[in-house]
Amino acid sequence: VRAEDAAGARQICDDLHAADMADLLQVLPARERRKLLNLIQSDIDPELFHEIEGEARGDLYEITPNTQIADAVTELETDEAVYVLEDLRDEDREEVLRALSADDRVAIEESLSYPEDSAGRLMQRDLIALPEFWTVGQTIDLLRSDDADIPDDFYDIFVVDPAHKPVGTVPLSRVMRNQRGVALGHIMEKKPHVIEATADQEEVAYAFTKYHLISAAVVDESQRLVGVVTVDDIVEVIEEEAQEDILALAGVGESASVNESLFEVTRGRFTWLLVNLATAVLASVVIGLFDAAIEQMVALAVLMPIVASMGGNAGTQTMTVAVRGLATKELSATNAARILKRELMIALGNGVLLAVISGLLAWLWFGSPGLGGVFAAAMIFNLLVAGMFGLLVPMGLARVGIDPAIASSVFVTTITDVIGFFAFLGLAALWLF
Amino acid sequence: VRAEDAAGARQICDDLHAADMADLLQVLPARERRKLLNLIQSDIDPELFHEIEGEARGDLYEITPNTQIADAVTELETDEAVYVLEDLRDEDREEVLRALSADDRVAIEESLSYPEDSAGRLMQRDLIALPEFWTVGQTIDLLRSDDADIPDDFYDIFVVDPAHKPVGTVPLSRVMRNQRGVALGHIMEKKPHVIEATADQEEVAYAFTKYHLISAAVVDESQRLVGVVTVDDIVEVIEEEAQEDILALAGVGESASVNESLFEVTRGRFTWLLVNLATAVLASVVIGLFDAAIEQMVALAVLMPIVASMGGNAGTQTMTVAVRGLATKELSATNAARILKRELMIALGNGVLLAVISGLLAWLWFGSPGLGGVFAAAMIFNLLVAGMFGLLVPMGLARVGIDPAIASSVFVTTITDVIGFFAFLGLAALWLF
Known about the structure:
Number of strands of chain A: 7
Distance between the termini of chain A: 74 Å
Oligomer: homodimer
């Protein structure tokens, strides 16, 4: 690239898979990326528009004329095309849509009419839907004919009734294993998994994982077959959702990829740090209540962060398990009471062990058995609080419709900090003076 | 279940998909679960052995005689059978293996000989491998014949050379769309994605996600085709790995499902809390160095947890992004310097803003502009430290071969705690007295 060897660069890029090409562009520094994009601009693989992410994506869309984007969109499957169009500026999207054929435009506009992150956005509209009485032979003959509406890759044939409602699916392998005379209705899987076009992608991913689906029929509000979601899209959804949960738990927010714009990332993290500053001040106010005790005994100031930190860690442990349990549906209202008992027993077990260790430590360090006792008691108490609120906070948030991954950790660590400082300093003020 | 209505319970369970049945068993309290298992014992769906998890899994294996497990294993695909056998006690596993047919036993023992979490364990051994010169017609005729070695579901036909090395793949949809006379070699996808049987499942999942694969050929050390990994297994791997990362970051360890045994969970979390206790003590030792300053000015004790907590949070933000960046390969040695600069700029931006806010706060609260200045300076400094080590710690751990998800947060929070207390109290001791 540095040598501006256009032909050489083009040659290398031609040999790369679109996914590898996207990786290369994302890793390059901004200036060289733009240079490379200008070099290869005229023969960009349509798949690249779909594979690329982050800042590199913005650059690619900016450099490519809208007519070329429209050509690429025509080559892509509906779901990929929708993904590309979602992120264009409004006026560019209009221009690209106008340049498409009427069929493509209608299909894409319909998909875009479904809410973001819904099955309607993920689905592909080209699919094979046939009536029950069709035979394996007729099916194969149809597939061999040169019909433009047949998708590139497909894994199931959908069997529909006269109202175009899905009544069964036939995996391709089953079509191939049966004689030409057999009717599809005879070999189909009845009660197919049907997904509403408005369903959230998280729900769709859950069904795919649970029932090991490869593709599933998508229906509109009148139960008519309108598209198909395939597992390769779901793999991306699962990665995305897990990523979101991890980052949300750490307070990084959504704009988290190492390729996002600097300003957005800073702002996203700042919000979280500001909230954390407010809660830390709250904990400090609690400490301020006991300034007289601390003045009398500086050891309290030395030990108090330990109680708060242990509570925070134990609370995070329980909270993370709870957030994941809610996401994977292992935790629900039906078994909440049992899980709470379990968490409290874990907290009690760990609390007693850690209290003994840390009580002895405080005694030896400051030569005061009373201080050791107060420290140990505060430790057990705070771990029990951590176990309880680590579970109840995410469950409560989920019940009122807030994503527990995003909001839980502020609440849980505030509670364990405040209660940790209060229990330790309060007990010390009561017992030691 | 409570009414011991055996026939009724069996009826309901028969109608359930194995995955739903597994969910039901996992949610039931232990006593009722065992009762239900005893009721339905004689007609358990073989798939249930593969779907079930956690404590319920132990109960199911205990209640079912080994001969019945062997029957179920025969019904399952190789990869599912391996998954079931992995978790049996050694003597039970021997007994089940002995009860299998010689073919099945050899296949499963070979799979078990690959390391845990490797492609060899995930793969299924039944597959369709044909030479290049075979035609579409011959292929369909073979598939229609009643050959026991043909798997239930398959998505690609593998084309192999005379040495049984994979040279291409043909998606089923492409077989169906071509005339009977066309040779497979003519329509195959060349350069197929080939996976070594010893490859780690995380690598395999990465390739599936990146290249949108549905199935991929697995080869042994001499590059011969030995099995196939399908995307439904990969979906589970992705969920599992993301889950592991989330839980490891929170210090919960692997035994984390809400269905694990109480003792193991408590022990897993205890280890982490003990490590955290040690690092918290380290931070307290730093505080102890400045006890004279704290005695003179209790406000220091009130404010110091804020500096440490803000550093810890900012460090966790950077660290989480870095851990995920390493997992998704967005972060590597080639772009580390650029990302470090970026993180330091984010830290500086947020640090300055938060320092102004918190400096003013400390000034107003305690009426001392000097204290406000010290507080603000310590805040900026600690956020820069957090940004730097939040990135360098995970990268360093990954370089020496330690999973950054497991070990990073101890190091990062220890560093931000120690440096946070040291910077704030040290600057205060220097400037204020």
